[in-house]
Amino acid sequence: MEKDRPVPPSPSDIQLRVDSKRGATNVIHPVGGVTPPLPSSGVAGPLVYTEGKHFQKWFPWLIPSFVIANVVMFIFTMYVNNCPKNSATCIARFLGRLSFQPFKENPLLGPSSDTLQKLGALDVGKVVHEHPGWRLLTCLWLHAGLFHLLANMLSLPVIGIRLEQEFGFGMLSKLWLFILMC
């Protein structure tokens, strides 16, 4: 005994609605066959599919400014680190003060842990016992090395720019501040 199954619509019953950004009126295109006239508003017509929400035109500036600030902070961190003065062996010594600590000290091609601590790296013991609350903010801008910086700065624009276009500056700023407090 065969159960009653819904009958799929024939191709002539399926229509697609195209939303044009150019200001043209909506046109209904059948999947197969000749274009039928537009259905009247009072009569139920065939199944119509519409395109989802378009992203609003928004020039994202918050996320690119975060990327620039992070890169500038990394350069400043490497300047403060001054590997040639504090270590006998440095990687990329031709960079002078900006050269990296040896792989034994930092395999991510970055500053020493002492430099990161001096600039405000998050140290749970210090935050809990000594209460330097400023470390909760400064640790967000520090990177352990070039590989850490590249991974973050390549993923931030991919995810962040899309979020900024979708939600706008205000909502993304509120979200970012909420994440900072967590």
TrEMBL record:
Belongs to the peptidase S54 family. This is RHOMBOID-like protein. Keywords: Hydrolase, Membrane, Protease, Serine protease, Transmembrane, Transmembrane helix. Its EC number is 3.4.21.105. The chain crosses the membrane at residues 58-79, 140-161. It comes from Turnera subulata. InterPro entries: Peptidase_S54_rhomboid-like, Peptidase_S54_rhomboid_dom, Rhomboid-like_sf. The keyword Transmembrane applies. It catalyses: Cleaves type-1 transmembrane domains using a catalytic dyad composed of serine and histidine that are contributed by different transmembrane domains. It comes from the Eukaryota. It is a multi-pass membrane protein. The gene is RBL1_2. Residues 134-177 form the Peptidase S54 rhomboid domain. It is found in: Membrane. Serine protease involved in intramembrane proteolysis. One of its GO terms (molecular function) is serine-type endopeptidase activity. One of its GO terms (cellular component) is membrane. The lineage of its organism: Eukaryota, Viridiplantae, Streptophyta, Embryophyta, Tracheophyta. One of its GO terms (biological process) is proteolysis. It is an enzyme of class 3 (hydrolase).
